[in-house]
Specification:
The protein is α/β, with parallel strands linked by helices and 219 residues long. The chain has a single domain (3-213), classed as TIM Barrel. 41% of the residues lie in helices and 18% in strands. Strand 4 (84-88), helix 5 (91-103) and strand 5 (108-114) form a beta-alpha-beta unit. The longest helix has 19 residues, at 160-178. The two termini are 24 Å apart.
């Protein structure tokens, strides 16, 4: 199936209130433009340099989401244009985003990343760390970040019960967080392999790559 056919299929499958982030990392501009012609406007990248290059050369109404693990020294390169940073996993990173947001005079939209998987390779905050972060004086004084919600990645496993349990936990954290941050509205969970379970458990944003663009080309 072509990129456009894959996208049409996804639009039939996911609810209207679930945002589809097309994960375009490692994909050429031609593939992104094919998805763009079908009406897709939100694309996810995991390398800042690659995202900057695509932002400079592709239509300017595309919303670029940074979905990979983000190093603090890279924030400045995308502060001007990034539409959403998915993986904010520490106060130090949030401080840097706030600092760079101030330089470009905008509040940068962010999701706080929770560690919900049983794998140590995944990044993210624990529930205690999440609430310590938002209760901190540093956080309270930030003018140039806008917390939109939470993000998390489930364990890479065929055990659907485990994946469901991890997504349920993330949804509970999101609901608890709404009492402190009532404006949050985004729960980013679910990828090509587990997005159906994620949507059932309350996801409002899914990140789909290979199921749209085909297998990835790693350089």
């Amino acid at each position: 199936m072509s990129i456009s056919q894959n996208l049409e299929q996804f639009k039939l499958e996911i609810h209207e209130n679930v945002t589809l982030v097309a994960v375009s990392k490692t994909k050429p501009n031609k593939a992104i433009l094919e998805a763009y012609q079908c009406g897709q406007r939100i694309f996810g990248e995991n390398k800042v340099q690659e995202m900057v290059e695509k932002w400079q050369s592709l239509p300017n109404d595309i919303e670029w989401h940074m979905i990979g693990h983000l190093q603090r020294n890279k924030v400045k390169y995308m502060a001007e244009f990034v539409s959403l940073i998915h993986g904010v996993d520490s106060l130090r990173l949030l401080k840097e985003i706030n600092k760079q947001g101030k330089k470009v005079d905008r509040a940068i939209p962010c999701l706080l990343q929770m560690h919900i998987a049983e794998e140590d390779t995944k990044f993210g905050l624990s529930k205690d760390e999440l609430f310590q972060l938002i209760a901190s004086d540093d956080f309270q004084q930030m003018q140039n970040v806008e917390i939109k919600g939470l993000m998390g990645m489930a364990t890479f496993t065929k055990n659907e019960n485990q994946v469901r349990k991890e997504f349920k936990f993330l949804k509970e954290c999101f609901t608890d967080l709404q009492s402190s941050l009532p404006k949050i509205n985004t729960l980013s969970m679910g990828m090509s392999g587990d997005y159906k379970i994620a949507i059932e458990e309350g996801s409002t944003m899914v990140r789909i790559g290979s199921s749209i663009f085909g297998a990835r080309n790693y350089h």
